[in-house]
Amino acid sequence: MKRTLLSFCFCGIAMVAIGQNDTIFYLDFELDSLPSNFVETQDTADITVWQNYSLDSIPAANGRPDNWYLGPGIANVDTQNTVIASTSWLQGFLPGNRNYLISPGFYLPDNFTELSWYSASRYAPIYLDGYSVVVSTTGSAPEDFTDTLFRAAQWIGPNPNPTTTSPIAAFNNNSYSDGFVHGFDGTYLELDGDSSDWKCVLQPHSVSLAAYQGNTVRVAFVHDSDDDNIISFDISFDKIFMKGTKIIGLEERADLQTRIYPNPAAGRTHLAFELNTLGAVAWEVVDLSDRIVAEGRAGSFLPGHHEIEIPLEGLSAGRYAQVLYWRFF
What is the C-alpha separation between 215 and 111, in angstroms, rounded? Predict the structure, then answer.
């Protein structure tokens, strides 16, 4: 019997459509500590952990952390949730707040991937903080994030030309930057004193990543609101997750005359190989603990070129090895 070892990597992505609902990452911050794969660094290398750092390097006011930190939800209905938050009130009332929360890279095999999260500003309609959700297909440096997936608006000041668009009069009397204005439609708000003072309730959002099919992407949540010199503004996130199709990349071994396609693959892949004589073929997929997680018998084959299908459904994201066996007759 001859044994051939082929190594390959599983990495994840996500989607919700057409029955594709693998969850590749899910962050709800309920353990009262940042996940172990969050690093406070400005490392711009192609790393495989979440990066959490303050690009502006300006200390936050009132002793708050300079970058993303954990705390309770803002609205009364959210206080039981632990969220990740950021403040735009910087020492000296300086502008230029830029706090980044950057994901590892995820390969997108199809056009079904969707990114979802919950967010809330500290106050509305005045003192409303905004943020951006951006994507990179090249690297983890801030300048690599050239595409904007979502933009939440920030408060600019009183509106010299009040409108009647919002059901809440106080919103009509204020101006905002371009983007989604939390609470403008009268929802996801909690009264905080009087009709002109509201707390924001965590609101769900989602964006499609269909345009990035076939690319490895990194997503960044960027708190880029500037302080108005009066009060600190917190933007908070909860339940950040990506749903879609789990991806498998397989390292080919030219010396063994093997080929794997498609590569990366989702759900299943094909293994092509050469036999010099009549033989029976079987295969295994093992994890890093050498535990068999999938296996099958392909049958007997004549000498020549052959291809077999390897099903990969149900395997968790991680690193695995594929073992191909054949016995010559």
Answer: 11
